[in-house]
Design a protein that fits this description.
Elements (H helix, E strand, L loop, with lengths): L7 E2 L2 E10 L2 E8 L4 E7 L8 H14 L10 E7 L2 E7 L6 H6 L5 H20 L12 E3 L5 E3 L4 H4 L14 H4 L7 H8 L4 H4 L6 H17 L9 H10 L13 H10 L11 H16 L8 H23 L13 E6 L14 E3 L5 E6 L2 E6 L6 E2 L12 E5 L5 E5 L3 E6 L6 E5 L6 E3 L4 E5 L5 E5 L6 E4 L5 E8 L5 E8 L7 E6 L5 E5 L3 E6 L3 E6 L2 E8 L4 E2 L4 E4 L26 E3 L5 E4 L13 E6 L4 E3 L7 E6 L5 E6 L5 E6 L4 E4 L6 E7 L5 E7 L7 E8 L7 E4 L4 E5 L5 E8 L7 E9 L7 E4 L5 E6 L5 E6 L6 E6 L8 E2 L6 E5 L5 E6 L2 E9 L3 E3 L3 E4 L16 E3 L5 E6 L22 E6 L1 H8 L4
Antiparallel strand pairs: 1-2, 2-3, 3-4, 4-6, 5-6, 7-8, 9-58, 10-11, 11-12, 12-13, 14-15, 15-16, 16-17, 18-19, 19-20, 20-21, 22-23, 23-24, 24-25, 26-27, 27-28, 28-29, 28-30, 31-32, 32-58, 33-34, 33-57, 35-36, 36-37, 37-38, 39-40, 40-41, 41-42, 43-44, 44-45, 45-46, 47-48, 48-49, 49-50, 51-52, ...
Helix pairs in contact: 3-8, 3-11, 6-9, 8-10, 11-12
């Protein structure tokens, strides 16, 4: 639409046109109320005739208006006048970055400050859950005072003509907008910065902005686009298959900046740099090194000294960013420590087992986070998830360890010992093995692994039938075996009782079975080729000299490293997979060439769960606290009448509590000495059914109980059988629960679904039994359908079957992994968790079943995977379906009058410490002669 100067749009008086873009016409105007200049973006005419698009745009615009950052052009509001829809924005004076690049490449010392401000803007938006989706030089303004402003944040999504979450040619409206279909240059301008996933019509995420940032930084430094072609198709083909001309980057660009650009432009977004914090660190450190470079007129002595400073600084940055190992030819092996911080969307999991392993040659780290294994090469900035190791709780990969050649990673998953190649591929089953109590892979290609009360076992690295090589007495547990040099004796930890600091470190001969105590107190000892044992006591690593020939300690222990994280050892921390969570595991590992890596104790606080709070989260991700004090909440279940919440609390005696939403009070429901958990409501909201079990050993939960939710009367035992209660059927006649079974020499099948009648004779009946795990079963509100998760495809996905005749059909629901399904109370939606995000699927549940396309609701840092016990659902939905009951990690401030004190500290950052050439320090502190 053509506007003339003097035209009024509400309080805004048009003064002139600024330009025409893919998302509408842009005009300069005066705000007559506030006396300031603003930019007015007139939206395309297509919006005026599409009420649904208009409503969605207005919702998105309100979210975008919440962005407040000095490097982001502010959205002031929406204006509706005479059928026009206009977006009122901050007017930013100055040329665009595209104008500046048109005059030639930008020098490094000018380009990096610009890139830094762009990265800060993107980081701030990502923290608010907002993705730009259309970053390009034309959307970046350079003010005369040096301030950089990023424009059009998130408008690609707001103006997208397709429904939210649907796929199309791209998430960028510059291509899909009818206004731009004839403006090929603009179309190419957008296509040149689109990520591969956008080019394929897939949903954009934060890493899509990272790609565009890399493309913009490349163009600033070279003066040419990273990806270009004669038309849109050629350009997109280059994005998908081509590579930038790397030789075009100027020679004075830091190698770290080059590496950053390469990592930003990784076509596989799983390998792409995930966070802008990495970009900011590299830019800052590169600028610091550049500032230390010698000036042309300095004397030769000053030049040489400055060059030395630059070289040292560059080496330190390279080590801390990429954690590269020093070449073997370096004559002086000096100690060097670096902190490795996990991305903000990753948290360590399975704290009762080993969390980290280091390859023998020190080139790779594997760690356990977000219920899966991640592999990180030392010369890379980011870790990659290992396919097939994901899953819920015991079904996820845990306790990793490397093969002697570093080509394989051994781990536990779902009651089995497995291995996966470091180059990728599907995991390989080695043998059944219930309890991950430490393992090591010897040079003769045999694996020794602990089984707690079942002693120590050995199996070939190629798989096969395991053999028991060490037996322990009743009440004892064996952990962390290692084959000593010579191959005829095993070093391991032997514990009696629950105090792991009172455990013994022993050596046992494979020939005679003779056992010798080498240390009276300590756990998780490792033999080091320097002639030492390194072990844990409390949160400290200690070392002693050790003679491998005589199998004897030859000196006293010396403290080496403080504040090393250990597995929790409290007796009430019990796992359904068998045995106490406390395994004596200390979270450290060493390479053969002398590197040490460990998890910092304050980064893995046992009480981290005690900082959980409960929040309502609406479909736009906005939070409202419930009023619960910070505690170790797990498995919240909202009562059918919406008035109370049944909660597992994993502190004190590990019981079930009831939270009254109106009164904001917590009342304890169970009091037994055993572990009570996974409380589910009866349809009338009067009773809660739960599991109760003994601690220790392999017994796990042994009974299902029910009790009145108001605490009156006593708990009634329903059945004495190991199982997990999932839901009571809508007619209140049956309980759906899971039981486990195992054939000799095979992994445990944890998820046989059973029906327990709640009226008459309580004899459980099979509901669904397959060779796979079926978990977290939920009946639909009308009682006709059953949603559950299964690993039959090789990873956990959500399926739906008819109910109660579960063998009469099957429909897949999730498409990229899924756990913990939940029906909306109206039966028209299914929700589930997928890789830390809450997903939504529209469904039809009448006489037939049909599922739509999954879309993401939100993925803020909520607690989806319990660290301590079980594998139940960790969220719920309100009766009206508008809000979700979520567990907030780290607590949340609440200033409402009369509310409980619920301010909690932020959760500790998930980080590891890498120490290079640590064996030199060990030999210095603990002499062997």
């Amino acid at each position: 639409m053509s506007l003339a100067p003097g035209t009024r749009l509400g309080p805004y008086e048009i003064t002139g046109q600024i330009g025409v873009g893919g998302m509408g016409e842009v005009w300069c105007a005066t705000d007559t109320n506030l006396g300031r200049q603003v930019a007015i973006k007139i939206l395309p005419d297509a919006f005026a005739h599409d009420p649904e698009r208009l409503a969605r745009f207005e919702r998105e615009a309100r979210t975008l208006a919440s962005l407040n950052h000095p490097n982001i052009a502010q959205i002031y509001g929406l204006e509706k006048t005479d059928g026009l829809r206009a977006l009122v924005m901050e007017l930013v004076e100055g040329p665009t970055l595209a104008d500046r690049i048109a005059s030639g490449p930008i020098p490094v010392d000018e380009a990096l400050p610009i890139a830094r401000q762009i990265a800060e803007a993107l980081e701030a938006a990502h923290e608010q859950g907002i993705i730009h989706r259309d970053l390009k030089p034309a959307n970046v303004k350079l003010r005369p005072d040096g301030t950089v402003k990023v424009l059009d944040f998130g408008l690609a999504k707001a103006l997208d003509p397709v429904a939210a979450g649907a796929t199309g040619v791209t998430a960028s409206p510059t291509i899909t907008s009818p206004a731009m279909m004839t403006q090929v240059g603009v179309i190419l301008g957008t296509a040149a910065y689109m990520s591969p996933e956008q080019a394929k019509g897939r949903q954009a995420d934060k890493r899509s902005d990272v790609w565009a940032f890399g493309a913009v930084l490349y163009e600033m430094l070279t003066g040419r686009r990273a990806f270009t072609g004669e038309d849109v198709s050629d350009t997109l083909a280059m994005v998908l298959k081509g590579e930038p001309e790397w030789n075009a980057l100027p020679g004075d660009v830091s190698p770290l900046v080059v590496r950053l650009i390469r990592r930003c432009l990784e076509k596989d977004r799983r390998r792409r740099t995930a966070e802008f914090s990495t970009a900011l660190f590299i830019i800052d450190e590169s600028a610091r090194v550049a500032a230390a470079a010698p000036r042309p007129r300095e004397s030769r002595i000053r030049v040489a000294a400055a060059a030395g400073v630059v070289a040292v600084a560059a080496a330190a940055i390279a080590a801390s960013v990429a954690w590269m190992l020093k070449p073997a030819s370096v004559p002086s092996l000096s100690l060097a420590r670096f902190t490795i911080t996990l991305p903000t969307d990753q948290q360590f999991s399975s704290t009762g087992r080993h969390l980290v392993a280091l390859s023998p040659d020190g080139t790779h780290i594997v760690y356990v986070a977000n219920a899966r294994l991640y592999l990180r090469a030392m010369d890379q900035l980011d870790a990659v998830p290992l396919r097939g190791t994901e899953g819920s709780d015991d079904m996820s990969g845990r306790s990793p360890f490397f093969s002697p050649d570093g080509q394989w990673i051994g781990f536990w998953q779902g009651g089995a010992l497995k291995k996966v190649s470091t180059t990728g591929g599907a995991p390989v089953l080695l043998c059944a093995a219930q309890n991950p109590w430490g393992a090591s892979w010897a040079t003769d290609n045999t694996i020794l692994y602990g089984q707690g009360p079942d002693g120590i076992w050995r199996v070939s690295g190629n798989g096969g039938k395991p053999e028991n090589v060490v037996k322990v007495d009743a009440g004892q547990r064996a952990h962390g075996p290692q084959l000593l040099p010579g191959g005829r004796a095993i070093l391991f930890t032997l514990a009696s009782g629950n105090d792991w600091d009172a455990a013994q470190i022993v050596v046992q001969s494979l020939d005679t079975g003779m056992r010798r105590v080498v240390l009276e107190r300590g756990t998780d000892a490792r033999y080091v080729p320097t002639g030492h044992l390194v072990f844990a006591l409390g949160g400290t690593l200690l070392g002693v000299p050790f003679d491998a020939a005589t199998l004897a300690v030859t000196g006293g222990p010396v403290p080496l490293v403080e504040a090393v994280a250990r597995a929790p050892g409290a007796p009430n921390m019990s796992s359904l997979g068998g045995g106490p969570t406390g395994t004596g595991a200390a979270h450290f590992a060493m390479s053969s060439d002398g590197a040490l890596i460990y998890v910092s104790a304050d980064a893995l606080d046992e009480s981290a769960m005690s900082r959980h709070t409960l929040v309502w989260v609406d479909r736009r991700g906005r939070e409202v606290p419930l009023g619960t004090p910070p505690r170790a909440y797990v498995y919240p279940r909202l009562s059918p009448d919406g008035t109370r919440v049944a909660l597992d609390i994993r502190d004190q005696e590990a019981d079930i509590w009831i939270f009254d939403l109106a009164r904001e009070t917590l009342t304890r429901l169970t009091f037994g000495p055993a572990l009570e958990f996974l409380g589910v409501w009866t349809p009338d909201s009067r009773e809660v059914i739960f599991s109760s079990g003994e601690f220790g050993g392999n017994r796990g939960p042994r009974s299902l109980f029910r009790r009145a939710a108001d605490g009156t009367g006593t708990a009634e035992e329903l059945i004495e059988e190991r199982g997990l209660p999932y839901a009571v059927t809508p007619d209140a006649r049956s309980l759906i629960f899971s039981s486990s079974r195992q054939q000799p020499g095979t992994p445990v099948i944890e998820g046989d679904l059973m029906l327990l009648p709640l009226m008459g004779e309580r004899r459980p009946q099979p509901l669904l039994q397959t060779p796979y795990d079926e978990l977290n079963a939920e009946p639909s509100p009308n009682g006709r359908w059953l949603a559950y998760e299964s690993n039959e495809s090789g990873r956990y996905e959500i399926y739906v079957r008819p109910f109660p005749n579960a063998t009469a059909g099957k429909w897949p629901v999730s498409t990229s992994g899924g756990t913990r399904p939940l029906w909306a109370r109206n039966g028209q939606e299914l929700f589930y968790e997928s890789m830390g995000a809450l997903m939504r699927v529209p469904v039809t549940t009448g006489s037939t079943f049909a599922a739509g396309t999954p879309t993401k609701l939100f993925d803020a840092p909520y607690f989806f995977g319990p660290v301590v016990v079980g594998r139940g659902r960790t969220y719920d939905v309100s009766p009206d379906g508008k809000q979700f009951l979520m567990i907030k990690e780290g607590g949340i401030a609440d200033s409402r009058p009369g509310a409980m004190a619920r301010q909690a500290e932020s959760p500790p950052s998930a980080r590891m410490v890498l120490v290079q050439h640590w064996f030199e320090e060990l030999k210095r502190l603990v002499p062997t002669k």
